[in-house]
Amino acid sequence: MNSFSPGFQGRARQVADKLPPGQYPTESFPVLSAGPTPKVPVESWQFTVTTETGRTHAWTWDQMMALPQQETVQDIHCVTRWSKFDTRWRGVSLDTFFEDVETAADYVVVSSYGGYTTNLPLEDLLDGQAWLVHTFDDYPLSPEHGGPARLLVPHLYFWKSAKWVQGIQLTDEDEPGFWESVGYHNYGDPWREQRNWGD
After folding, report:
1. What pairing do the DSSP bridges indicate for beta strands 56-60 and 70-77?
2. Which tens digits make up the pLDDT trace of 94-128?
3. 26 vs 24: CA distance, rounded Å
4. Rounded to whole angstroms, how far apart are CA atoms 192 and 74?
5. Which residue ranges traverse the bilayer (predicted)?
6. Could you tell me if residue 103 is left (phi over 0), alpha (psi between -120 and 50 degrees) or otherwise beta?
7. What is residue 198's predicted lDDT score, i.e. its pLDDT?
8. Is 3.90.420.10 the CATH classification of the domain at 24-192?
9. 132 with 94: CB under 8 angstroms?
10. What is the pLDDT of residue 64?
11. pLDDT value at position 3?
12. CA 178 to CA 188: how far, in whole Å?
């Protein structure tokens, strides 16, 4: 005899469909960082995109805020096995930053205030897949969660969504970042459980 209501079964099925293997859902938003939390005033914040030839495109905070803003609702998945559904963000699509960037590079290294780095294929940042976000749940992004601005790449494990983002360096070769160089998977697809190099 089934003791669950049809509504509960439907909700459980919906959660199961959204949950990558090995993950558990949470309503909280755990704070995990590789080092101390940098405090970056928006007055001195700058974001740069540097091509493989050394050409640099730069935006101040005010210039970034003047770009077209997008609201996006995304599920996020941490390599430590928690998943948080329907998170609400506001920011600028990476497509906007790359509109005038000429490059033949296939990869990027993302750098953060505080020294953190992570690597991604360039194609994973484009076509509406990634944002530079400054607002979470209608509030300015707190420093603990990467404020004033962080990268959001929700289709990969959350360590790829670099906090306190400072710049993107386009590269011809794939160069592992902080966690990748100590054994985390180079790509990090949660649906394939790519947690470590051997996965």
Report:
1. unpaired
2. 999 999 999 999 999 999 999 999 999 999 999 99
3. 7
4. 18
5. none
6. beta
7. 79
8. yes
9. yes
10. 98
11. 43
12. 13
Smallest Cα–Cα separation from 115: which of 54, 40, 194, 42?
Answer: 40
What is the reported pLDDT for 199?
Answer: 74
Q: How many CB atoms lie within 10 A of CB 79?
A: 22
Q: Which two tokens stand for residue 127?
A: 């076509």
Q: Is the peptide bond before 38 cis (omega within 30 degrees of 0)?
A: no
Strand partners, 165: 112
Compute the distance between CA of residue 19 and CA of residue 77 in angstroms, rounded to an integer: 9
Instruction: Quote the tokens at residue 80.
Output: 């430590």
pTM for this model (two decimals): 0.90
Each domain of the chain, given as residue ranges in start order, spans 24-192
How far apart, in whole angstroms, are the C-alpha atoms of residue 157 and residue 76?
7
C-alpha 133 chain-centroid distance: 9
The mean pLDDT of the chain is 92
Residue 5 pLDDT > 70? no
SS3 letters across the chain = CCCCCHHHHHHHHHHHHHCCCCCEECCCCCCCCCCCCCCCCCCCCEEEEECCCCCEEEEEHHHHHCCCCEEEEEEEECCCCEEEEEEEEEEEEHHHHCCCCCCCCCEEEEEECCCCEEEEEHHHHCCCCCEEEEEECCEECCHHHCCCCEEECCCCCHHHCCCCEEEEEEECCCCCCCCHHHCECCCCCHHHCCCECCC
